[in-house]
Amino acid sequence: GVSIDGTREVLGTAVGDSESYEFWREFLTSLKARGLSGVHLVISDAHSGLKAAVMQQFAGSSWQRCRVHFMRNIRAAVA
Fold first, then answer.
1. Chain centroid to CA 22: how far?
2. Which family does it belong to (predicted)?
3. 7, 10, 36, 50: which could form a disulfide with 31 (CB 3.0–4.6 Å)?
């Protein structure tokens, strides 16, 4: 995350056997249970499970595709 003063912070880590909606829903739920609130923007890769979990857990927040992931996908497609 990025705090109000611009400091970047690791919010959490987890190991899962897939990037399913269920995994991401549980991960985001755990962040909220530990006090995460006021989420305005989530930047991530375009994995459908992650996007769906973000929209469900942080209703009203915006989602943006990560530029690094986007560029990697473009390079892989044209290589």
1. 14
2. Belongs to the transposase mutator family.
3. 36
- Plot region of 10 (φ>0 → left; ψ -120 to 50 → alpha; else → beta): beta
Helix (H) or strand (E) holding 63: strand 62-65
pLDDT tens for residues 33-76?
Answer: 999 999 999 999 888 999 999 999 999 999 999 999 889 989 99
E strand or H helix that includes residue 23: helix 21-33
Residues of the domain holding 54? 21-78
Answer whether residue 14 is part of any domain.
Answer: no
Residue 16 lies in a domain: no
CB 9 within 8 Å of CB 3? yes
The tally of domains found in the chain comes to 1
Q: Please say whether the dihedral angle defined by the alpha carbons of residues 13, 15, 19 and 24, taken in this order, is positive or negative.
A: negative
Residue 12 lies in a domain: no
